[in-house]
Amino acid sequence: MNTETLRGRILDYTKREMSLHGVSGLTMDDIARGMKMSKRTLYKLFPSKAYLFRICLSDSAKTVRNYIQQKQLRMDSSCMDLLFTTVNGYLTLLHSLGKTLLLDINADKEYRSSFEREEAFWLQQFIDVLTHCKICGYLLPEVEPDSFATDLQEVIYKSCLQGTPYVVQRMMNYTLLRGLFRVDGIRYIDEHLEPDKFNVCV
Q1: Is the pLDDT of residue 23 over 60?
Q2: Domains plus CATH for the chain?
Q3: What does the alpha-carbon distance between residue 72 and residue 66 come to, in Å, rounded to a whole number?
Q4: Which of 7, 66, 67, 141 is the most exposed place for a label (fewest CB within 10 A)?
């Protein structure tokens, strides 16, 4: 097996285990044992646990980011489509990491500082898409995209830390958004509140 393939398998395995056990509950010994390899080989590829975990966090985020950015490039995506894609993308990322890992990240300065860059990316996405919705005339005039984007991100993050199920959280997010939109926007949100829209993550 070549080095890149092996690295990829280690990353996939570590991401799965991180979501179950968090940062504090997973060691390099655990990963080496789970991968049926020597610690020496693991450390040759990833010189420290912190280095391996940071790559895993970045890799998890990149998949969702790429989906969002591809959607943004599509000419047929309305601002409302982009809003739901962005909100669901952030929610999907947090749920893919899992409550245990999020709590560890939140409590550990080293990992928290790495994740803050990711948080800044998503905050800017929220600001941009809400501003787009306001320009299109969907948002109520008194709604300020910058301040609401911060509140929205905080609500989603804290709900994930509390272990709120994905489907319940999506419903909560849509209900929260519903109060900010003019009638045309509310109709669109109500379509997304239909039960069959909640079965699949982004």
Answers
A1: yes
A2: 58-198 (1.10.357)
A3: 10
A4: 141
